[in-house]
Amino acid sequence: MSKNILKKIVLLAVTSIGLYFSGHDLITMLSRLATIKSFSEALTVMTFFTCLFPFLFLSLSLFRGALKTLISLLKLTSQMIQTAIF
For residues 11 and 54, is the Cβ–Cβ distance under 8 A? Predict the structure, then answer.
């Protein structure tokens, strides 16, 4: 596993943890139909959106890489089968 992929996985884990906790606080804040009343609630909203977009970009990047690897593996397997048959 390359260092780049490892860094992406670590960043994905950090952003997912941030999303989990800030999202949980955001849901409880929205469930009581409250507006943002304090600085800590504003930080919760900012943390949620700060973690959301890197999480989306990193997960799409890792998914695209995994999909490319799977497609190349399927092509290689197909070529090996064709070589074995003929």
Answer: yes
Q: Which tokens belong to 83?
A: 């070589």
Both tokens assigned to 30: 């929205």
Mean pLDDT (whole number) for 26-34: 77
Instruction: Scan for tokens 């090996």, then name that residue.
Output: 80
Single pTM value for the model: 0.72
